[in-house]
Amino acid sequence: MASSASHDSARRKIGSIEHLAAEIAARQAEGKRVIHCHGVFDPMHIGHIRHFAAAKSLGDLLVVTVTPDRFVNKGPHRPVFPDELRAEAIAALETVDYVGINLWPTAIETIQTLRPNVFVKGSEFRGGKDLTGAIKLEEEAIVSVGGKLEFTDDVTFSASHLVNRHLSVFPQEVSDYLADFSQRTSTGEILKFLDQARKLKVLVVGETVIDDYQYVEAIGKSSKEPTLVVKSLNNDRFVGGAAAVANHVAGFCDNVTLHSILGEINSEEDFIRSRLKPHIDAGFLIRDRSPTIVKRRFIEQYFYSKLFEVYELNDERPTIAESQAWTSAIAGRLNQFDVVIVIDSGHGFLTREMIDLLCRESRFLVVNTQANAGNQGYHVISNYPRADYICIAENEMRLESRDRRSDLKPMMEDVSRRLNCPRVVVTRGKKGCCTYQQDVGHVDVPAFASNVVDRIGAGDAFLSITSLCAAQNAPMEVLGFIGNVVGAQAVATVGNQSPIERIPLSRHIEHLLK
Hints:
The structure is a single chain. With about 525 residues, the protein is of the alpha/beta class. It has 18 helices and 18 strands.
């Protein structure tokens, strides 16, 4: 009975942000000094308990707000505990008077709503040490409501370190790799390549694709033919191909240009432009008598099983006039860009004439040649006589080498030599990736994905961010590590629904290496 009463008492402390605002205003009217703490608190540990106790000593009442699950950007495997359980655990502490689950990504709006007397952060945030820059904005918010920012001073404990060491979702060999890698490479050494990418001028070249996800429910077999019958439920549409790569890159670079192609038939240009980040300079060429490429996937919604795909595209060979027009649109401009990323889906836009121009005039050329149902067996990386960085999947490397079973590493060395390409990465799905650099050798980096929703687009995301690192001559193991963290984020979402962003990626990397 005592345990039940304690549980009920803890639950009574938890309320909506609106309810807490009213409670705080009432207590302040009585002359009470209200202290506010905010964070993820996942999992709660002795450091949090000491932090709350120190905060409470600054006033009369302590209110704690918890970051909701949807805004926890410490990686797809976090939070360990959902927001309701985190709130309940905090409410069980005698020190805490009120608990709420936040409505926003940061505490800025929360402070403005609750209007506490003091907002308290841990000593690790002293001096504005925060990747998101939120601490400065939170200080402005507390000052604007007549309060002040304080810091507690106690021994700090890392929740991410505890999770990585004692609640890891990874196999032991991956945990061992992360522990070893974090000893050899500082977080700062890694994040500098993401931070410094901002100044790069990047051109993305390739076909824009619309990924159309048709969600259905299987209802049975046709009564007259051996045909699966499904009922249409709903659909999602995302930009894919070169447009998706441009969106990923634009999360890290201020200057991004897209050179791509749409069809005259159902061009969907307005839809595509509406899905591109606003600072992308998109130049679309129009191909006559052709549709914009659509890859429509029919998915059984309950099991999230892909049933089949339908392509809308013109896969006829471009005319000489078309090839010349597409090539002349970027001729004389390539040397303006620090990095040129070619995402070649093998559907005709990257003609021999354009490939020769890209290989001849690009200052730093990145190439990915995708094997898909529309080009299987006819589209290989050796279509490009030169590159500075190649990133392809294992099946694409094996297709290039016409070898299904042998060791990948000699194949990578052979391609590197033939294409005079100093850096090669092969992505291997759940096996991670293998990197190769001339005069350095090979490094294998394991996968960090713990939540696989959809693999579509993961390779594009990997290519996009690692290209920026390769252009800065990042060590290949660092490049492979960043790429696999990117891949873990990409497979945790449906298709190209959400582009990779710098701050969530940086925080994910930080927490993996604690």
